[in-house]
From TrEMBL:
UniProt KW keywords: Hydrolase
InterPro entries associated with the record: NUDIX_hydrolase-like_dom_sf, NUDIX_hydrolase_dom
This protein's name: ADP-ribose pyrophosphatase YjhB (NUDIX family)
Domain (Nudix hydrolase): residue spans on this chain: 1-141
Lineage, top ranks: Bacteria, Bacillati, Bacillota, Bacilli, Bacillales
Amino acid sequence: MSIRNSAKAIIVQDNKLLAIKKEDKDGYYYILPGGGQVHGENLHETLKRECIEEINAEVEIGDLLFLREYIGKNHEHFEFDSKVHQTEYMFLCSLSEKSNDIGNGIVPDEGQIGVEWLPLKELLNFRLYPQTMRKYIIEHMEGKIFPVYLGDIN
């Protein structure tokens, strides 16, 4: 099995986080925009492509905020994720001035039903994956500093 690299965008505007909305048997849940790196792309190219495809937005990429691993066999979805090992690079991003029509892009994520702005003050009430990131995002926006590498978290 190989390890998959993924680039994710943390886009906060007006105290709201931009997230992709999906649905499963337990209801709505959210993920950060972004996705898998393909051979020959650097992480910035991956993230720019994925944001256009998923949220119809061009992004300006800032600092790498967090690096997390997801080793599926160690988490609650091990029944269907046991063979997944993914390293996610999460960058602080902002929307380009050209991005006026935020919504499902030209190649939405599998199961994507929309795009939503989630209020930071209510972020802990949403099923945003990785769930551990909710706290890190809120506290980062409040000025708290964390190590970049967060380990195998979900």
